[in-house]
Structures are given as C-alpha cells and as structure tokens.
Write a structure and sequence with these properties.
145 residues, 5 strands, alpha/beta, Rossmann fold, globular
C-alpha cells in the first residue's frame, strides 16, 4: 500500500520533550503532518498564523495551562466562527478531570499512557479522514500497526 500525506494538520501542545517526540512519531507513522509548541502562549501564537485541523493539548503546561489555553482558543473562535477540535492529552486520570477538560472547551480526552491505536483512532475521529490509508481501525488496541 502506498502511503499518502493526509490533508490534515495537527498542533501538538506539550512541554515534555519525550512526549513531544512520541506524539510527533505517531503522527508521522499515521501520515499526519504536525507542529510542536511547548506552551499555551506559543499555541495561541501558532494559531494566529496557521489553521490546524486538531490540537493535541497537554493539561499541565508552564505559565498558561491547557485549560486556560483551551478557553482562550474558544474565545478567539467565537469571533472567527471556526472550531478546531482540541483533544486533552494528559496523565491526569482523576475522577472529574475529563469533565474539567470538556468544560474548558476541549472536545475529547486521551489519557496517558495510550496505545498507538488509541492515538490513531482519536485523530481519525476528529479529522474525518476515514477514507485515507490506515483508517481501518481495529478494536484490539494491542494490534501492532
């Protein structure tokens, strides 16, 4: 099968270098172009110059945390009319954390650690790229891709 680049662009907002590289490698594996920023402030700057199809947002960011960043993005979108899906990607797995993320304007929640299939499934769900390579999803997260 010939791989083709997707017409979807992912913004990774993560301050941990290892997590940045993990998400970038997974995006590359599934043919999603991606950009990385390490703070909420830098995410807001990136969104002024580029339209992304999905934002992967860590909750615990320096200075402006992921919840505040999501709120700021939603406030700017209320003027532009655009809605970019924001997926919380966080090690916080306490009861109520998902609800806090959704209340801040995030669209979904992916808890660390996650499998490659969970990551792929989440991106495909929010990018509507189901007609492209690698879109055939298995419910078995242990499947090696």
């Amino acid at each position: 099968m010939i791989k083709t680049k997707r017409n979807c662009s992912i913004l990774i907002v993560e301050d941990n270098y290892v997590q940045q590289m993990l998400m970038r490698l997974l995006c590359e594996k599934f043919d999603f172009p991606s950009s990385i920023v390490a703070s909420g402030d830098n995410a807001l700057l990136a969104l002024k110059t580029h339209c992304y199809d999905v934002i992967l947002m860590d909750w615990k960011l320096p200075m402006m945390n992921g919840l505040d960043t999501a709120r700021a993005i939603r406030a700017s979108e209320s003027v532009s009319g655009r809605h970019t899906p924001i997926i919380a990607v966080t090690a916080n797995a306490m009861v109520g954390d998902r609800e806090k993320c959704l209340a801040a304007g995030m669209d979904d929640y992916l808890s660390k650690p996650f499998t490659a299939n969970q990551f792929k499934r989440m991106l495909l769900r929010w990018t509507n790229c189901t007609n492209l390579p690698y879109s055939n999803l298995s419910d078995d997260d242990s499947t090696q891709d």
